[in-house]
Amino acid sequence: MINKSIGCNVRDCRYHAQNENYCTLNSIQVVNHSTPATTKESTDCGSFEKR
Ligand code: SF4
Protein backbone atom coordinates (compact mmCIF):
# COMPACT_ATOMS: atom_id res chain seq x y z
CA MET A 1 0.00 0.00 0.00
CA ILE A 2 1.27 3.45 -0.93
CA ASN A 3 2.61 5.48 1.98
CA LYS A 4 2.13 9.12 1.04
CA SER A 5 4.30 10.14 3.98
CA ILE A 6 7.35 8.66 2.22
CA GLY A 7 7.98 10.19 -1.19
CA CYS A 8 10.59 8.31 -3.22
CA ASN A 9 11.64 8.16 -6.87
CA VAL A 10 13.87 5.08 -6.64
CA ARG A 11 11.87 2.87 -9.00
CA ASP A 12 14.58 0.20 -8.90
CA CYS A 13 13.60 -0.60 -5.32
CA ARG A 14 11.19 -3.48 -4.69
CA TYR A 15 9.23 -1.34 -2.23
CA HIS A 16 8.55 1.47 -4.71
CA ALA A 17 4.87 1.96 -5.59
CA GLN A 18 5.85 2.17 -9.31
CA ASN A 19 2.75 3.99 -10.59
CA GLU A 20 3.34 6.82 -8.13
CA ASN A 21 6.54 8.16 -6.57
CA TYR A 22 6.02 6.84 -3.07
CA CYS A 23 7.32 4.03 -0.89
CA THR A 24 5.00 1.18 0.14
CA LEU A 25 6.65 0.43 3.49
CA ASN A 26 5.09 1.67 6.74
CA SER A 27 8.45 3.11 7.75
CA ILE A 28 11.99 3.27 6.43
CA GLN A 29 15.41 3.63 7.99
CA VAL A 30 17.56 6.48 6.70
CA VAL A 31 21.26 5.80 7.23
CA ASN A 32 24.66 7.35 6.73
CA HIS A 33 26.29 6.54 3.38
CA SER A 34 29.50 8.08 4.63
CA THR A 35 30.39 9.38 8.05
CA PRO A 36 30.29 12.18 8.88
CA ALA A 37 27.44 13.12 6.56
CA THR A 38 28.24 16.46 4.92
CA THR A 39 26.04 16.40 1.81
CA LYS A 40 22.70 14.97 0.70
CA GLU A 41 24.66 12.21 -1.02
CA SER A 42 26.10 11.22 2.36
CA THR A 43 22.72 9.75 3.32
CA ASP A 44 20.85 6.70 2.02
CA CYS A 45 17.65 4.77 2.35
CA GLY A 46 18.73 1.79 4.43
CA SER A 47 15.51 -0.07 3.58
CA PHE A 48 16.28 -0.26 -0.17
CA GLU A 49 16.17 -3.69 -1.73
CA LYS A 50 16.78 -4.53 -5.37
CA ARG A 51 13.70 -5.43 -7.38
S1 SF4 B 1 12.57 1.41 0.74
FE1 SF4 B 1 13.62 3.35 0.44
S2 SF4 B 1 14.38 3.30 -1.68
FE2 SF4 B 1 12.83 1.71 -1.45
S3 SF4 B 1 10.94 2.66 -2.14
FE3 SF4 B 1 11.04 2.89 0.08
S4 SF4 B 1 11.99 4.89 0.42
FE4 SF4 B 1 12.39 4.29 -1.70
UniProtKB/TrEMBL annotation:
<dbReference type="Pfam" id="PF07561">
    <property type="entry name" value="DUF1540"/>
</dbReference>
<protein>
    <recommendedName>
        <fullName>DUF1540 domain-containing protein</fullName>
    </recommendedName>
</protein>
<dbReference type="InterPro" id="IPR011437">
    <property type="entry name" value="DUF1540"/>
</dbReference>
<feature type="domain" description="DUF1540">
    <location>
        <begin position="6"/>
        <end position="48"/>
    </location>
</feature>
